[in-house]
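Possible regression after last week's pipeline update?

I re-ran a chain I had predicted before the update to compare outputs. Posting the input and the new output here so someone can diff against the archived version. Not blocking, just want to make sure nothing changed silently.
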Amino acid sequence: MGSLNGPKQHRVSVTRRDFLKAVGAVAGAIGVPALVPSRVLGADAPSNRIHVGLIGCGHQSQRIVPSFLVHDDMQMLAVCDVNRRGIGYYYPDQVLGRETARQWVNEHYAEKTGNPQYQACDTYNDFRELLGRADIDAVAIVVPDHWHALIAIAAMKAGKDVYCEKPLALTIHQGRQMAKAVRKYNRIFQTGGQFRSSPNVRHACELVRNGRLGEVKTVYTWVDPNSFESPGPGWQPMPVPEGFDYDFWLGPAPEAPYHVERCFHRWRYILDYSNGQTTNFGAHTNDIAQWGLGMDGTTPVEFEDNGSEFPPAGSLFTAATKTAFRARYAGGIELFCETRKSSAAKFEGTEGRLEITLGGSLKTFPENLKDSVIGPDEIHLPHSIPGRTENVRKLIDADHVRNFLDAVKSRKDPIEPVETGLSTASLCLLGNMAQILKRRFTWDPAAERSPDCDEVNGMLTRPMREPWKLEEIA
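New output (post-update):
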């Protein structure tokens, strides 16, 4: 998942011991052996061993890399990032980049195989070079949102399966092209909405879907406050750090002067690269709402601002500092999404209430409602790991990856395929448009157009800086 409860205190970079301990903890939890013969890493792929490339070695990679490495039927062959090794990501002294990620991978396999000389993980500055490798079967895309569509489509065109962090895309049009590419190139695509792999969240959504709350009238979803304050009006550019390919980092986004707060995790608060916490955190909590209501494949049909707030004009950050929008589904159910460091989602029905906390635990009224058993003839939602009942965060992340790897082998859609990720992303993006425009509008989910707001229709796509161009998929 994203940084759900990321602390703000000063912390140095992850040490070798910390990283190996993190991988080992997940391995122990899911029951994989601590040592495997080095010859296993030479097995054929993808039927026996899936060869993976990592694209994006920033803050979120600290969660994604262990969640992949813990599985013995995959091998991470290469990592890619436009930053060789840099400081100042989420924490002031946090050192990340492609060289740091390569070190993690090599040291993991050195310990796993008992071969201290293991150095097989390669590094790249340009994702296109990694995608050109015939021995890589799948990629994990862990880059800023403005890069998701370009890299994912290029990966699928190159024959790679894709695990892509949420939110799916920067715009609805980009997300739709990603969905078309999945089907055109016959690839497996997993969206990184890890709550779908939470046993408790699944059970909560099954309770809602099977009528335990009666008729659901209202859903509340919450997003975390921004973790950082923006440099205000009058902020000054900074020199680009050595080893950081800043122009490549900008890529399709408009040219802009460098500032450390523009990059390295804080990019999510700038509308050129993301849509703020509304889409970052909302991609998790609104995904719960979509799943519980059975709305995968569609979205609400009406959106309006509900008191959102934005930084002062001239600030470096441009995304909402306070999320607040209302949406209405075709059947009349209302969804209220707002900034509050509270729970993830709450469903209110005519016969009860159900709240899902950020940790995945359930609060219900009546209290015993959460213990209700779903009968054999009722609606059962997909499991990432059949039989898994523990709702442990490290298991949820690893199980979401496990589900992706299993889908790569079976060639069946994973638990959060691209269309599901697109529905949730669209809900968040449309809510953000209502916040930016400060108005109400209606939406046609089938046509993916607003019947009454040309401004919304103009925000469905964005121009790209040359030479970057989004492939239009037929």
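Follow-up from reviewer: compared with the archived run. The first helix runs from residue 16 to 30. Marking as no regression found.
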